[in-house]
Amino acid sequence: MAASSGAGRMIDIDTFCSGDMLSFTDQPYLAELFASVSDASDEDLTVVVGAGVSMDAGFISWPELIDLMTKQIKNEKLAQLVRDDKIDLPRKGELVLQLIKNEKKYAKDAQIIRAALYLNGGSTHRNTGQLARSIARFICAHKGKARLITTNFDTLLENALCEYFDPAEIKPFGLRGLDPWTKWLKQSKIGVLHVHGLVPPPYSGRRRLDHIVLAESQFLRHGAKVREVIFENLKDRVSIFAGLSMSDPNLIGPLYELKQLIENQKKAGEPIEGGQRFALMVPGGAPNTDDNRYRARYSIEAAGFLDRELGLKTIFLRSYSQLNQVLADLTLASVAPKKYQPGAPGIKSSLVYENRLKSALGEVYTNIGCTAPKQEVPIAEKARELHDALYDAMQRGPVSKLIEFADAMSADHDINKPDGENFGMFLWLRCQEAADQEVNYAIQMVGSSTYTHREQWSLPKRQDIVKDSQMTAVRAVFYGKPIVTNLDPAPSGLQTWRGIIACPLILPATKIRHRVKGFPADILTVGAVTFNSTYYVDKKDESTMKDSADPKPLSIIASLDVTQTSQISATLVEIASAIITREA
Questions:
Q1: Which of 265, 288, 316 is the last residue before a domain boundary?
Q2: Residue 165, burial from CB neighbour count under 10 angstroms (0-12, 13-18, 19+)
Q3: Is 13 inside a domain boundary?
Q4: Do residues 487 and 494 make contact, with C-beta atoms less than 8 angstroms apart?
Q5: 304 and 369 housed in the same domain
Q6: Phi and psi (nearest 5°) for 390?
Q7: Per-residue model confidence as pLDDT tens digits over 374-431
């Protein structure tokens, strides 16, 4: 497959701040990605997955993993020295492992990592997350023939793939299993290659796979083999990097070698076999700055090196919801290539994102009572009807669930009584854009169970979807997953809410019937729903508190365990989705 130069086609800072990240016009590399995937055969695709995908499902980051491993050092003075040391993570990982082994003679690397990752990190019972499911759906859309490589230790991808394939067809592999991995793929089965090793959860039935690559000595010992494997699986293929910081030398090395290969082939007049490589990235931030524009500029300019020197085409997105949307749209474009028409977003019949979102939001706003042109919120009687629907749904859904949970966690904690705990449910939707407006990536609150806005001017203004927003609903949309906020007591005593859980509303488009193994091929994030509580909880048993050493009071929402939080989230999404689709 020929590789186009594409140099200088990365998005600029002005377009990033004011343009549409999912527009093929505003972001040329996005158009190249869809065209490249469309042109490639199923066997010529590689997806490389990093920690960001696991973090989307609630797993800890690499720095957090090292921090939790440090807690296993019994000598607190040595542990504190490790925490204070600013050396890079591979060297710190090396020191942590050595100090633990000095204290525990028979400790193994995998045991130390497992304790930090699953037991201390609390990740044993996490769900698969939107990003992992979207990657699995993309693999399924390509008949399982796209290759899947990960730098993660967990089995998250295998769990997500089980939703789309027979579990007997899915198997993890490590560096020692390269030949078996290749043979497994040739049998049209699904193999996940863990190039840094696999450390499965306790009692999962899966065994760990060598080699573990976390500490500096392990990078030195196994790095050459890892880079060789990645190089061979990127060459002459369309590759997509997701959830990676692109600072890992085991990734940078193969990219550099591929760039050199392409340049040498050009000079010799030989066929180009370098392939195409794309990275999906949400800007992080420059140190000590809160300015979103400069945060984005910092990330975009830093990616210029990847573009120029490594041939990696970085596609920048404003949120993790948008990153997930790109993966979802790649699946839709794969199963409906003739209808997707990526080169013609203006054609009304095209299934490109902007057309589908506009249509879906039009339906949703109509369903909640916005019938006039450009009407942003229901008013008068329609507002009261939405209020009643939200209140009734809240009582049937999350309040009913909390009544089941409350007795086990609180003492004399009354719910929905005059002098007891009270709750509110709020509906937020993506803002519709008028034809004369520039793109505005924002949400607005359109309805509440606690009060009714009868005049449009009185409603809250739009809230931009940014990483550092104070609004829990905004953060849920930004990260594309449920977010729990425990609010500190306000000094004035006027604060109403103590706890909030917000969930993004991710719906299948109603007019598109393409499916992947029974699952909708098309999904859209149309807004968020929040559930708020008014009281802090007095625990019967202080040992059950999330951090008994922390005197900070917890709301009933923040007191829920992972399973309970998951149940509340599922209920919230179900009842809110029913309201905005008129299925309630």
A1: 316
A2: middle
A3: no
A4: no
A5: no
A6: -65, -40
A7: 788 888 889 899 999 999 999 999 998 888 887 666 545 667 666 678 899 999 999 9
Give the Cα separation of 426 and 160 in Å (integer): 30
Is the Cβ–Cβ distance between 9 and 2 less than 8 Å?
no
Closest CA to 149 of 64, 248, 216: 248
Question: Is 532 in the same domain as 401?
Answer: yes
Structural domain including 176 reads 42-56+128-316
Q: What is the pLDDT of residue 175?
A: 86
Same domain membership, residue 209 and residue 104: no
List the structure tokens of 33: 């990605």
Cα separation, 170 vs 185, whole angstroms: 10
Does 330 fall in a domain?
no
| Residue 73 phi, psi (nearest 5) | -80, 120
Q: Per DSSP, which regions of 250-353 are E strands?
A: 276-281, 313-316
In a domain, 27, yes or no: no
**What is 237-256 written as a DSSP string?**
SEEEEES--S--HHHHHHHH
Judgement on whether residues 363 and 264 belong to the same structural domain of the protein: no
Given the DSSP bridges, would you call strands 190-194 and 170-173 parallel, antiparallel or unpaired? parallel
- Do 272 and 377 have their domain in common? no
Do 528 and 440 fall within a single domain?
A: yes
In the chain, how long is the greatest CA-to-CA distance? 82
Return all residues near 223 (Cβ < 8 A) that are at least 6 apart: 213, 249, 250, 253
Say which DSSP state 466 is in.
-
pLDDT band at residue 476, thresholds of 50, 70 and 90?
very high
CA torsion angle 93 98 99 102 (round to 10): 160
Cα-to-chain-centroid distance, residue 507: 16
Tell me which residue of 271, 213, 235, 233 sits closest to 65, measured CA to CA.
213
Residue among 133, 189, 195, 192 nearest 164 (CA):
133
Q: Do residues 49 and 163 both lie within one domain? A: yes
As a whole number of angstroms, the distance between CA 255 and CA 253 comes to 5
CA distance 382 to 501: 26
Token pair 């050396």 in the structure block, residue: 87
Q: Examine residue 336 and state whether it is found in any structural domain, yes or no.
A: no
Q: Report the distance separating Cα 156 and Cα 242, nearest Å.
A: 14
Task: Look at the chain and report how many structural domains it folds into.
Answer: 3
Q: How far apart are CA 553 and CA 181, in angstroms?
A: 51
500-517 pLDDT, tens digit each? 999 999 988 656 678 888
Same domain (yes/no): 132, 206: yes
User: Contact 34/330 with Cβ under 8 angstroms?
Assistant: yes
For residue range 237-295, what is the model confidence (pLDDT) as tens digits? 999 999 998 888 889 999 999 988 888 888 888 877 668 999 999 987 666 556 778 88
* Distance, CA of 61 to CA of 55 (rounded, Å): 6
Domain boundary among 77, 94, 120: 120
Copy the structure tokens of residue 398. 């999350």
